[in-house]
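ERR on first pass: missing label on line 2. Operator R.T. fixed the label and resubmitted. Corrected input:
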Amino acid sequence: MPYLLQFLQSLAVVLFAPLYAGVLVKASALVQSKRGPGIFQPYWDLRKWMAKGSVYSDQASPVFKAAPYVAMACYLAVSTIVPVITNQPLPLAFLGDLLGGALVLGLASFVMSLAALDTASPLGGLGASRTTWIGSLAEPALILVFFTVGVLSASDNPYLMNHAIAASPLAMVLPTHLLGAVAFFMLLLAETGHIPIDNPAGTIEISMIEEPRVLEYSGREYAIVKWGSWMKLFILSAIFMNVFVLPGGLGSATSLVGGVIGTGMVLGKLVLCGAAIVIIDSSFAKLRFFRIAEYLGGAFLLALIGIITSYVVAK
Amino acid sequence: MIALPIGAAMAPLLGTIAGLLTARARLAGMLAVAGGILCLILTATTAALVMAGRPIQSAGSLVYVDGLGSFFALTIAVVILLSSLGSLSYLAVEQRHGTLSPRRVRVYFAVFGVFATGMMGSVETANLGLLFILVEAATLASVVLVPIEGRTSGLEAGWRYVVVSSMGITMALAGTLFVFYAATGLPGSPQDHLTWAFLVRHADSLDAVSLRLGFLLAVVGYGTKVGLVPMHTWLPDAHSEAPSPASAMLSGALLNVGMYAIIRFIAIANGRFGPAYASHVLLVFGFLSVLVGALFMVRRRDFKRLFAYSSVEHMGIIAIGLGFGGLLGVYGALLHALNHSIGKCLLFLTGGSVVLAYGTRRSDHIGGVLTSLPLTGATFLIGSLAILGSPPFGLFISEFTIVRAGFAATYPALVGLFLLLLVVIFLGFFRTTSGMTLGPAEPRVTSPYVGRLERWTAHAPVLLGLGAILLLGLWVPGWLNDLLLRSVALVR
Amino acid sequence: MEHLSLASPAGIVLSLDAVLILLLALACLGSKLFDRYLTYYGLQSMLLAVAAGTAAYVEREPALWVLAGLTLVLKGVAIPEAARRLLVRRLQLKRDVVTIVGPSTSLILGAILAGFAYLVIGPQHLAQGLISASIIPISTAVILIGALAMVLRRHMVAQLLGWLIMENGVFLGGITLTASFPFIVEAGIFFDVVACFLIMLAMTTGLAESLVALSDRGRREPT
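pass 2 clean. output:
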């Protein structure tokens, strides 16, 4: 049964990630009084790209061709170790804790940057340098954020964190936890290229941050890359909701029904998270590039204050 | 009974009333002087009563005068009287010259009274919170006096003064809170937990960590007020930019009030930790102050700044005296506080005459004061010898006592350093003041004072002060000795 | 008050409140625009009023309600509004042009100071689970951050506000831990603060005007 659940969890991530992205786009459009594409548009896009052939630059090395698959594998790996539909570790959860998950996500970002540099296209290099810069600033903050929940649960295992938060309503309102949650949400926006770091609907290459890295891809590889980035958004949002905000409602590691209900619950929670993202997307402007350091510094600061105020923990 | 100290504290408010009533410097000044005389008489009576019996206190110890309090009250009252005499003539001249508008004269006297009352009040309470409030009130009043001559440099000095000292005073408040916190759980009302006498009595049962933190914060906070290095940065600016009689108050009285507050906290800390702890803290601050004072006194052009650095140095000497501790150390420190008050007060007042006559504070533009203005020049020269601790003046006796205390406390190396610094200070200071007083007369310079009243009120406080400080150098009166011994007993 | 448990509702409110006050102090440290700075300060003072109100509720002390009201009205509304009208609107002192270090560096220094406050106070040695372990280090940190703002910023308005933040830090500790602090003293301190603010405001005005006059003269001289 746990193996089945394990499969179900990764399947849920793979299947519902495009839907989540589509809902976000649609909601953004609605908030901005536009009609917007349908919520299933990402699926049609995927089918279209899959059907097309790929064009490679004659400068491209195997790194370029392999990168999307490596990244996809990373996202799949992360989907097995974090709590998405169950609150008990599944068979593959031994692979890593939250820090390990962050490491694997870092690997995905790394190969994508390598691939962007590989074709020697100027925009690719630009995107790679920008994302690496932001990543290097976000990473320490992310680690600190994990520590904030780690302080409360005395563990860096996402499942134990989930239990610690779910077990005590007091923990939810402790400054440490709230600050950690806010900081994590800020990092989530930064990592997935949302306002105020990057405009997901932006069309001007020169101001893009995440997008220029994948401009050289086409066809099936492009589909994989996009799918991977939607999965990343899905996974990070799920971690945010399951570990930081609403820990309840997940299934156990033994019941398939619980897993299915858990999937539904996660989708419901993601609606809330998506609503927050959409509101921020629509009501703030993109930061000037050099202010991004301040934004990430702010997230770092919040997490740091969260940790140093953790003495407040009531035992 | 408590009407006496309250009356003494309120008496300078006569000056405030005068300032509100009239814009004529002479008239307002005379009322301020009357207030100063009344204040001194009432303070002396209070001191006599305290000496005769037990401390005067009200219910809840909001008003509380003991030996130490009445000693400092006397010191302050003397300075208030001398400076209000000086204010009369100084402001009359400035008003005639048009430097001060009538409105500013009003403000000066109004604020002067509040300033004096705040200081008198702060040494007559045992409540640390009230002490804080009154010191802060006095400081705020004095801030208004600094830029009153309307120069931009004065405004800047005033700004620096208010910023640094409010930062310091906030530290002092935090220190007071911590000391209060250290007393939680003791019997008595919350009012008692802020009362100095209560805290000293129960010093043994105070919480050590909070008290240590509170003590350090209070020393740093009130030390800002005192001008201990490195919290002294506001002092030279403020003391040199203020009108001279106000400088006399700042240097002669306000610094002592800060020192008084520190002494109160030392008494509490000594009760808990024994004398060594506070002693080390004070020695560090004291030596830093004397050292920096000495270094900055060499080749100082602005002579009022020179006096200001000399105040830093003397506060350092008092801190060193307290740091050496023992009967001799504390006795010497307190006596030095009195001597320095009078000496610095008369020096600023006579310096005020020089500023008025020459229209500058730069020592290299001033020469031959002794020949141009014989009386001012003579007092200036003798006053600077006195402030440097030459015999036969009072400061010699008190510094000598502190040196003896240093030997008694077996700090011979520190005493050697101390004496070396005093020599450097003597050379640096006297080089400047002798250069100003000696030399050929400047023909254009005449006495700024017109009429008998101005001349009298300009010279009388200086001569009185010189007489007092000379007397203190030759002989410490029996009653003063008793008062000092009683104060020392309160601190140790 | 110092024996209030952290797990009680009042304890939770207070510790959250204190953390927000700390964050606002940091926000002040990082902001260059005085308008925003004043907004943060006003918010911080309002949170301070909330803390005072909580203390008043727990202690059932009417005097503290008065203090909370005073804090809300004077520090939360009157002081920022007065400063905004006079300094920002009339004297056009809009942004801090003379910082020694940039906002990011100041923030890092501020965070280091906050950590330092925890290091010095050592709340892990205090009684666990009590409100004092959470409030004392935070109020110390706010005091230090205010002092840092005064040191790092050379602009008068920034220094003034830095001092006000320091004062708020002291009050945070004072109100919540020593609720039994005699009211006369507390009120006296409060009015001292207001008086000091007014004097500083007057001096800032004087200085700003004389600076304007100076620069005008400087501009006219070459012609």
